[in-house]
Amino acid sequence: MSIIDTMHGRESGTLDLNALAADIKQWGRKLGFQHIGIADIALGEAEKHLLDWLQAGRHGEMAYMARHGLKRTRPGELVPGTVRIISARMDYWPEADDDPWRILEDDSLGYISRYALGRDYHKVLRKRLQRLAKQMEAAIGPFGYRVFSDSAPVMEKALAEKAGLGWVGKHTNLLARDAGSWFFLGEIYTDLPLPPDSATTSHCGTCQACIDICPTQAIVAPYQLDARRCISYLTIELRGSIPEPLRPLIGNRIYGCDDCQLVCPWNRYAQVTREKDFSPRHGLAAPQLLDLFAWSEEEFLSRTEGSAIRRIGYLGWLRNIAVALGNAAPHPHIIRALQSRADHSSALVREHVAWALGEQARKSRAAAPTEEN
């Protein structure tokens, strides 16, 4: 069926929804999405899992996870009239010469989660999804829809799983057999009763590499994440003080953590992104910690413009880097840099700088040769 036929079908009430679904997937690929799937809105199992997670307090200070009640798991309550979700995947693994493991092993460098190296994905995906919706509208006429990408109370992974984009792995990230987990998700909530796709099956098997590698043991059981221990939560979502027992475990990870994805066998099939917007910018793929710690607030705002990193704010940036410097091998340059921030106007920064100086002093003492009797 042609687009014109589809439009006439909409007007006459005989719209070929199967043909439209096929067109949507084709249009999505041309717009740069690697996979488009369609899900119904029944999320009963996901709702139970979410409520149990919230009841256990594993969301930490992310009060927004509970703020909207059941709108997160009941799409029709978030956007009245919604009967289907168009779920879209866009790969983001950057083409870079730097080996992530090498960066993690070099305590003079800061590790930034690979998803945040380029332009803020929220804007990129929403704009592209909006174009897809407009293309649908041009084909069939006006219809009800709203576009999201990690920008509202949406169960993105559960919906993507139902739409056949992959399965939720033991680390709680979505996995695809042909793409691993290095991708973003976005959705179009719609009132069109499109034919839903079939969910895929899980292929984690007996593997628990992600559970074993987690620096803070935040994956407390297969498919169960305690965000309060997760380095991504501690360095991004948490606004206050990072618990002292967890600071040494953070290493040099200053924005997010990728360990569970880096070790996952399925990511051998990950594809390098074709989106230039996701290419590393401002030299942040393998930056020197001391250079980052020297940034003024104006430099931070300038160099993170259009980046997801900006959301943690300058104080969170200094807090995270102070922890990483405290975890580094003792060095006079590090001590001098920390001392330069010791009287910072922010109590949050002062606290973490003081801790880092204490760690540097402790390790310096441990490394000093002892006098022979």
Automatic annotation (TrEMBL):
**Could you say which enzyme class this protein belongs to?**
oxidoreductase
Q: Where does [4Fe-4S] cluster 2 bind?
A: C214, C230, C257, C260
Task: List the active-site residues.
Answer: D150 (proton donor)
Reaction(s) the record says it catalyses: epoxyqueuosine(34) in tRNA + AH2 = queuosine(34) in tRNA + A + H2O
Residue span, 4Fe-4S ferredoxin-type domain: 195-224
Q: Which Gene Ontology cellular component terms are annotated?
A: cytoplasm
Q: Give the molecular function GO annotations.
A: 4 iron, 4 sulfur cluster binding; cobalamin binding; epoxyqueuosine reductase activity; metal ion binding
Binding locations of [4Fe-4S] cluster 1? C204, C207, C210, C264
Q: Which residues bind cob(II)alamin?
A: R72, D150, L174, L185, S232, C257, D258
Could you tell me where this protein is found in the cell?
Cytoplasm
Q: How is the cofactor bound?
A: Binds 2 [4Fe-4S] clusters per monomer.
The cofactor required is: [4Fe-4S] cluster; cob(II)alamin
- Pathway this chain belongs to: tRNA modification; tRNA-queuosine biosynthesis
Q: What is its EC number?
A: 1.17.99.6
Q: Which UniProt keywords apply?
A: 4Fe-4S, Cobalamin, Cobalt, Cytoplasm, Iron, Iron-sulfur, Metal-binding, Oxidoreductase, Queuosine biosynthesis, tRNA processing
Some GO term, biological process aspect, for this entry: which one?
Answer: tRNA queuosine(34) biosynthetic process
Q: Does the keyword Secreted apply?
A: no
Main localisation, per the record? cytoplasm
Q: Which domain of life is it from?
A: Bacteria
Q: Which PANTHER family match?
A: EPOXYQUEUOSINE REDUCTASE
Q: Which family does it belong to?
A: Belongs to the QueG family.
Q: Relate the protein's function as given in its record.
A: Catalyzes the conversion of epoxyqueuosine (oQ) to queuosine (Q), which is a hypermodified base found in the wobble positions of tRNA(Asp), tRNA(Asn), tRNA(His) and tRNA(Tyr).
Q: How does it assemble?
A: Monomer.
What's the name of the protein?
A: Epoxyqueuosine reductase
Q: Which organism is it from?
A: Nitrosococcus halophilus (strain Nc4)
